[in-house]
Amino acid sequence: MASRSALLILGLCLLANGISGRRLSQMEAMDQCAAPSNGAMKSLKADSTTAVWGYFYQGIEPAMVASSGDEIMVEMITHHAGDDYEKMIAGDPGVEDIYRWTPEEQTMAMRGAKGAGEGVHILTGPIYVCDAEPGDVLQIDILDLAPRKNPSTGKTYGSNAAAGWGYQFRAGFLDDDKREVITIYEVVEEDDEMYVVPDYAFRFAGGPTGYPGPTTPCATLNGSMPRTVAGENVEWSAEERIYSSTNVPCDDGNQTWAGYYYPGVITQHPTGTEDMSIKGKFKVPANLHIGNIGLSPAWDEAVNSIPPLPTGGNMDNKRVGAGSTLYLPVQVAGALLSMGDAHTAQGDSELDGTGVETSINGKFKLTLHKAGALPKFVANLTHPLIETPTEWVVQGYTYADFLNEIPEDPQNQIFALSSIDKAMVVAYNETRDWMMQSFDMTEDQAITAITIACDFGITQVVDGNFGVHALIPKKVFKMAE
Ligand SMILES: *[C@@H]1O[C@H](CO)[C@@H](O)[C@H](O)[C@H]1NC(C)=O
Ligand SMILES: *[C@@H]1O[C@H](CO)[C@@H](O)[C@H](O)[C@H]1NC(C)=O
Ligand SMILES: *[C@@H]1O[C@H](CO)[C@@H](O)[C@H](O)[C@H]1NC(C)=O
Ligand SMILES: *[C@@H]1O[C@H](CO)[C@@H](O)[C@H](O)[C@H]1NC(C)=O
User: On the CB side of 13, how many CA atoms lie within 13 Å of its CA?
Assistant: First the structure.
């Protein structure tokens, strides 16, 4: 209930900051839930008023209301569109609106859980699901995903950023030539099949073509917003805008960013520094999926969008695509579903830090399972569960619930505690427990069945809370009644 007062304060604050966004008050959300549905598809377009940059937070006012049984459309805008402004932003009004950062105006002033880059994803939402309460389970059927075409070109491009948080920085480079490399991909159709094909690359640092980083107009907004349920403000100053713990000072009206500093900064690589040699070297069948889709955790502060949560979030599991269903445990009233970080392709591990980050439109069906009447296979759900046409997928992480398991400063500490070993233990335990319950098995039966029939995979090694998932083939096991 404390969150309700935070919602009110936030609402006033948005007005005070001159953001004209049309979000819904708690009261309006309730009213809309009570009104009879006219059966029309609800649609959430992405712009600066319906997107949130870099965090989940139970105090965000909903961008839309939906009920169990509704089909909805949601636009997702990539936070890597700044890697090629002309191809991914220019001429697309919703994307231009989100990225507007001029000396006079930043439409998305608040980037990150504390206004300073703690979280990077542009998340559309949250969507308030009528009647959802803690203990319920939200089922999200992903009906369709389609690349967003830039209306000015009719084309879709995405970016793969081999960035400083990628695993190659842990492993080391040949010749110790550390660099960040952006590869822009085009999404193409050939013979009714969709592919992503590399178009060109450019570098930050390293080698003859590497450049130190872009210069952008200084942020002009000083800000303050309630970002704790207790109503405490997060404040920031335009003059001392700190991102990822480093001050990026304002010099004569410009800020200069070192390297691939923060997704969302327009990278403006100098003309002539493109490396075209990758063009035509390979093409990858597209596998559209949503990197970050989740419900708000019950936490009294805004939560960085990078480490994944029991309520989903940044799982970066390539199986979260069309034809799949996601089951997520609800922790707050209204569930508060948000999504973004869509990819047109990515392999398990997401090794260099990103997928092919692409703006994508999605169509979904929502089904709410109430706590008293949960199907057995989601009755004790404490982690995301994915159902594909052929498999059940149990999603484990280094910490199943890092916010509640790491005693001190979990939102920062999680990044130093990343471990695939621990994620394997968690994924195994969750798989064992889930199979015992869902297939009426003993522990010994589950152990042999897992060993003989299931594959474990490394979901991602780049999101702080590393991911390991188990693939459980549906045709092998029978669901318990
Ligand atoms: C922002 O705050 C700083 C102090 O933190 C102040 O010096 C500056 O004048 C303020 N700028 C605006 C535009 O209000
Ligand atoms: C700031 O950046 C703009 C645009 O890149 C440029 O025109 C201007 O000269 C820069 N100002 C300074 C003082 O560097
Ligand atoms: C895994 O399950 C075992 C048995 O319940 C338990 O002792 C162990 O602490 C669990 N490990 C983790 C990381 O949850
Ligand atoms: C699931 O939860 C119920 C009720 O809390 C409990 O009785 C049951 O043992 C749990 N099952 C598993 C496999 O944890």
Answer: 22
